[in-house]
Amino acid sequence: MITEDKAYDILALNQTATPEEILARYQTLKDQYKKIKEETKDLKTQLAYQLKQIELDDVFIYLRTCQKI
Q: How far apart are CA 63 and CA 65, in angstroms?
């Protein structure tokens, strides 16, 4: 379950981050995870980054629900 503290930890931001900073960090991480997942041939790494992408999407949904973004 995502909490506010965990959401900011996953994004590596502090809780004073602006909505613009949150969205920028989300998009940066999303792009990085996608690139790593696509470039690796190792199935275990692909699955790990798939889980990271899902977790990142959960953070986005949580913060949107809390009206932080």
A: 5
Short-list 1, 64, 59, 49, CA closest to 26: 59
Q: Quote the pLDDT of residue 8.
A: 97
The residue written with tokens 């949904």 in the block is 61
Structure token pair of residue 34? 């996608």
What distance in Å separates the CA atoms of residue 60 and residue 22, rounded to the nearest whole number? 9
Closest Cα partner for 4 from 49, 63, 50?
63
| 46, 40 contact by CB (below 8 A) | yes
Percent of the chain with pLDDT over 90: 96
